[in-house]
Structures are given as structure tokens and as C-alpha cells.
Design goal:
With about 300 residues, the protein is of the alpha/beta class. It folds into two domains: about 140 residues, 3-Layer(aba) Sandwich (Rossmann fold); about 160 residues, Aspartate/ornithine carbamoyltransferase (Rossmann fold, 3-Layer(aba) Sandwich). It contains eleven helices and ten strands. The strands form two sheets. Strands 7-6-5-8-9-10 form a six-stranded parallel beta sheet, sandwiched between helices. Helix 2 packs across helix 11. The longest helix has 20 residues. Bound molecules: phosphoric acid mono(formamide)ester. The site of phosphoric acid mono(formamide)ester has 9 residues, from helix 2.
């Protein structure tokens, strides 16, 4: 592997290798004084974020530092992009500073793939438009694997704004490759055209999806992309597609709940579900475990792509 821009064409053995290596790093991360071999000591990684991020950016930075790599933090608003510099010129100038890899977050779908044609260095997609967010899906699958041992035959549905979601796309590709049964649950206006061609189940009734599933990946309603315009009202969305304690109590079905973050509390997920880390109740929230796992998974990606 030289680049990681998506899971669409990543073969099973590559995904399994990344998840197995992440498990080794996770074990060390949970010790009192984690110590890692500095396998990336001479490497310099540009964290080129043209769009805001909390979890992805910081966890890549921590992952790089654990492996001994140096990082250059780049945000579009504080760079010469604000003076009109193009994406291509920005990448070429960073490469001229002897950067070994680019971690790219960009609002445009396809930006990461485009950059693989501009630079000779490794490119890791940290989320591009509504295209893919491969390391998020890897950490979601890693978290499910930690709980269930395997994804083979596991029933997982993705809930909410599928249309705008790069997380949904990467998870669909990755989970199908690992043998999970994947379903979507969404208002019809937030389903991308052609979804049924992927051979996955579609639910428009959330209760039915919960009854079917072992786990749910709840998506953020992307209000900054005017998602509200696809819905009669946010209140109505919360009633029909919001994952709440009341709904799970009524159905009496235990569900493992994931969410990539950031969350819109009381819209796609209630606080009681999001924060229910230790049940009793009918849900277990894995949200913060996902964030910790993000470090291990991103260490595995950096090590695989960059170690000599
Ligand atoms: N899940 C995720 O990508 O979060 P950030 O936007 O904070 O990186």
C-alpha cells in the first residue's frame, strides 16, 4: 500500500492486516505507560486540513508522535490558501519541504485521489466531501470487532444522513468486505440514488431496523450542508429517526451504538443513549471507545504506509 484514499477497492487481506496491527497498538495504548518502537523516526507528516476536525486531526497527530514521526499542522484558514493559492501549489510547496506523507481533509469529494496525481508521496484520506473517510470506517469496524470478535454475519445498520456521508460510504464498502450484513435506515430524501444496487437492505422504519440489528452506526445530520432542507423539520426527524432511550426501552432490544462524532444531541441521538457507556438499559454507547481506537487504527495506517 502506498496510499489510503478509500475502502471501495481495498482487499480483505489489507483491511485485516490494518485491524490486526491496530489491535497490537491498542493493547499497548491501554497499558499504564505505553511505549512504542519509533519506526517513523525520520518521517515528516503534513496534516493538511482544508476543513475543520477535532477527532481525526488530533488522533493522527498523536498516532504520528507515538511512532516517532514529526508533524506539520496545516489549516486552510491560516495558510496562503486564504490568499488564493491553489490546492496543487500548496501540496507541491509542502512536498518541497521534504514532507513524506500527506493526511488530507478536504470539503471536495475526490480531493485525496486528485492529490495522489500531484505528489510522489503517500496520501491518506482523512475525509473528502461526501466521498470516503476510510480511517473512520476502519476504527468503527475495529470497535465492532473488539465487541463481537468478528463482523462476519453481524447485522449492522447505518442510520441517518446517508446522502452526504463519507463515513457511510467507507463503512458500507469495508463492512461488506468483512462479511457483515449491512442495512441503511434513513428518510428517502437522504438516501443516495442507486443504493439498492449495492445489494443492501433499506429500512424506512427505525423500529424495524433496531429489531433486526446487533449494532447501529448513527450519523450526524450535516446541518452545514443544508440537510434541514431535505426534511420537513428537525423535530420531526428526531421523532421518526432519532435514536432515543424511550424507543429502545419500548422495543426492549439491546443495541450497541456507534457515532463518528460530532453529535447533534437530541436530534439524531439522545444524550441518554450517547452517554450510556455502562448499561443497565437497552443500549451501550461506544462513542468514546471509538475515539481511543482511532489512535490505534491511525498508527496502524501510518506504520503500514510509511515504515521502511
Ligand atoms: N469523525 C470525524 O471525522 O470527526 P472530526 O470531524 O472531528 O475529525
Amino acid at each position: 500500500m502506498k496510499h489510503l484514499t478509500g475502502l471501495c477497492e481495498l482487499p480483505l487481506h489489507e483491511i485485516q492486516h490494518l485491524l490486526d496491527l491496530a489491535a497490537v497498538f491498542k493493547k499497548e495504548l491501554t497499558t499504564k505507560a505505553p511505549a512504542f518502537a519509533p519506526t517513523l523516526l525520520s518521517k515528516r507528516i503534513a496534516l493538511a486540513f482544508f476543513e475543520n476536525s477535532t477527532r481525526t486531526r488530533f488522533s493522527f497527530e498523536i498516532a504520528a508522535k507515538h511512532l516517532g514521526a514529526g508533524t506539520l499542522n496545516f489549516t486552510a484558514s491560516s495558510s496562503s490558501v486564504s490568499k488564493g493559492e491553489t490546492l496543487g501549489d500548496t501540496i507541491r510547496n509542502l512536498e518541497a519541504m521534504q514532507v513524506d506523507a500527506f493526511v488530507i481533509r478536504h470539503p471536495s469529494s475526490g480531493a485525496a485521489d486528485l492529490i495522489t496525481g500531484i505528489t510522489s508521496k503517500s496520501v491518506i484520506n482523512a475525509g473528502d466531501g461526501s466521498h470516503e473517510h476510510p480511517t473512520q470506517a476502519l476504527l468503527d469496524m475495529f470497535t465492532l470487532k473488539e465487541h463481537f470478535g468478528s463482523l462476519k454475519g453481524l447485522n449492522v445498520f447505518i442510520l441517518g444522513d446517508i446522502l452526504h456521508s463519507r463515513v457511510a460510504r467507507s463503512n458500507i464498502f469495508g463492512m461488506l468486505t468483512l462479511g457483515a450484513n449491512v442495512a441503511l435506515c434513513s428518510p428517502s430524501t437522504l438516501l443516495p440514488p442507486g443504493t439498492s444496487a449495492l445489494g443492501i437492505r433499506i429500512f424506512t422504519d427505525l423500529d424495524q431496523a433496531i429489531q433486526w440489528a446487533d449494532a447501529a452506526i448513527v450519523l450526524r445530520l450535516q446541518l452545514e450542508r443544508a440537510t434541514g432542507g431535505y426534511l420537513p423539520s428537525l423535530g420531526e426527524y428526531a421523532v421518526h429517526f432519532g435514536l432515543s432511550d424511550e424507543r429502545l426501552d419500548r422495543i426492549r432490544k439491546h443495541l450497541l451504538v456507534l457515532h463518528p462524532g460530532p453529535i447533534n444531541r437530541e436530534i439524531e441521538i439522545s444524550s441518554r443513549v450517547a452517554d450510556r457507556i455502562q448499561p443497565p438499559g437497552y443500549s451501550s454507547s461506544l462513542l468514546l471507545q471509538q475515539v481511543t481506537n482511532g489512535i490505534a487504527v491511525r498508527m496502524a495506517v501510518l506504520q503500514t504506509l510509511l515504515a521502511e
